[in-house]
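Ops channel
N.P.: pipeline sanity check, posting one input/output pair.
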């Protein structure tokens, strides 16, 4: 087994920063030591195979992206990153674990949907991965099968209040699934948008000739995110289910979560980099030589980008500081413009929904530290520590401590990253949603279970190194 010493860096955790050396033996962290102590102690020093110099750099637990959709079937196509390409891109960006969503389609057995996701991921991932379960058809069979997922290491499931006819659950179905959540401790994850109303609005806009990508965001009005978030909160309150609302983008939805939490309810929420940095106005102004106004399709995702004039982005940053939102995930769901987003040219309703960001989350959130939106510690908490605790990985992941997996990132605050150039990213996409973004920091070295998989701009990872991780119940259950 290889022994690696990460020497001279500042170890940053959710609770503080301290100069320390980190000793890794095989796949695990074995010690966090006073700077220089290993090199002075001769026995230990003799056993170290590799020293990684982290002088002037941050040493942080590897990123955990708890919301990705590799190969998700959507709108007659499928997300363009496979588990192989998507996890490699994640590794480049300092993310060492993803939690992807296995899909049960309506009419399909949960076990069959899950088995398909295991087949897609097995032997192809560069980093460790876990699954949540999308329940696309809440019926008696599904309700009976859900508790069995816990033994499979799947302790959270996602329901959709949006997308009637595809993943959608009505209130009666949500109620029954939440009763399972209450009884088992599984976390209910909710896509909180009122899909039936949104679909009518979208149809009316289309009928009026409003077909550009921008109208996707008009149809998906914030009122229908606020309403669905409130409904989810009340159903969770009624049943006693723990609730986690995914991809929150409307400031009014955050207010609902804050209100529920102030009343003592176990309700949580995540936002995504796109809701912090991008806006509906950006989408309205988007245009290119190749695509004209259809350029805005690159930012079609759900929930949609929100108006900057209405203050949603500022509200998301604020909520991350005040803990009204607890985490940042990507909702990584990439589609190429050519042959994929293009399916919705002339009809925004047919644009596959999703943005690719799995490679950029750690950098984009670090930029929030640079601009004074977040502390260094909060950056680590939002991107690694809380995801680990929320989704039952903490101890093994999300922390630099003896016994934890050696998933470690050496981050250079004096480095620089130009993330916008799509030729230089590693996601399987023909464009970037982040064209032109510049980051005042850089992912230098990435270790996954003790193995250096990225170092100084060179990739040393391999497909199949990443293992399936079984998750325990959320540590946020009261
Ligand atoms: N939102 C997206 O943007 N893509 C996939 C599914 C979703 O809910
Ligand atoms: Zn969703
Ligand atoms: Zn999603
Ligand atoms: Zn560097």
């Amino acid at each position: 087994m290889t022994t690696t010493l990460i020497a001279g860096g500042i170890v940053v955790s959710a609770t503080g920063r301290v100069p320390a050396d980190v000793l890794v033996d095989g796949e695990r962290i074995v010690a966090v030591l006073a700077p220089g102590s290993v090199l002075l102690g001769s026995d230990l020093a003799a056993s170290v195979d590799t020293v990684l110099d982290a002088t002037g750099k941050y040493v942080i637990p590897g990123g955990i992206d708890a919301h990705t959709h590799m190969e998700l079937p959507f709108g007659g196509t499928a997300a363009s990153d496979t588990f192989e390409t998507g996890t490699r891109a994640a590794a480049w960006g300092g993310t060492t674990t993803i939690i992807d969503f296995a899909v049960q389609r309506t009419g399909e057995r949960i076990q069959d949907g899950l088995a398909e996701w295991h087949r897609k991921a097995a032997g192809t991932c560069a980093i460790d991965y876990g699954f949540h379960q999308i329940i696309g058809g809440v019926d008696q069979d599904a309700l009976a099968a859900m508790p069995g997922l816990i033994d499979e290491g799947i302790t959270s499931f996602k329901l959709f209040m949006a997308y009637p006819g595809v993943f959608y659950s009505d209130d009666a179905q949500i109620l029954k699934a939440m009763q399972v959540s209450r009884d088992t401790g599984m976390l209910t994850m909710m896509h909180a948008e009122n899909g039936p109303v949104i679909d009518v609005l979208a149809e009316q806009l289309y009928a009026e000739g409003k077909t550009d990508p921008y109208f996707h965001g008009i149809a998906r009005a914030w009122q229908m995110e606020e309403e669905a978030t409130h409904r989810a909160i009340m159903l969770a309150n009624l049943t006693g289910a723990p609730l986690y609302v995914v991809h929150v983008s409307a400031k009014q939805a955050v207010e609902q979560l804050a209100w529920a939490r102030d009343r003592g309810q176990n309700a949580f929420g995540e936002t995504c980099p796109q809701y912090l940095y991008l806006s509906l106005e950006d989408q309205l102004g988007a245009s290119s030589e190749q695509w004209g106004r259809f350029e805005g399709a690159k930012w079609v995702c759900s929930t949609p980008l929100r108006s900057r004039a209405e203050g949603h982005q500022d509200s998301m940053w604020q909520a991350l500081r005040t803990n009204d939102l607890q985490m940042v995930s990507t909702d990584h769901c990439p589609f190429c413009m050519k042959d994929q987003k293009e399916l919705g040219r002339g009809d925004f309703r047919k644009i596959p929904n999703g943005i690719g960001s799995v490679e950029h989350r750690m950098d984009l959130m670090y930029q929030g530290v640079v601009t004074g939106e977040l502390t260094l510690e909060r950056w680590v908490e939002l991107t690694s520590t809380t995801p680990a605790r929320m989704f039952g990985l903490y101890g093994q992941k999300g922390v630099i401590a003896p016994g934890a997996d050696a998933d470690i990132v050496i981050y250079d605050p004096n480095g620089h990253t130009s993330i916008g150039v799509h030729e230089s990213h590693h996601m399987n996409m023909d464009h970037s949603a982040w064209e032109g973004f510049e980051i005042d920091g850089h992912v230098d070295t990435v270790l996954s279970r003790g193995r250096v998989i990225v170092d100084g701009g060179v990739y040393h990872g391999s497909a199949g190194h990443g293992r399936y991780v079984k998750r325990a119940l959320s540590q946020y259950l009261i």
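N.P.: looks fine end to end. The first helix runs from residue 37 to 40.
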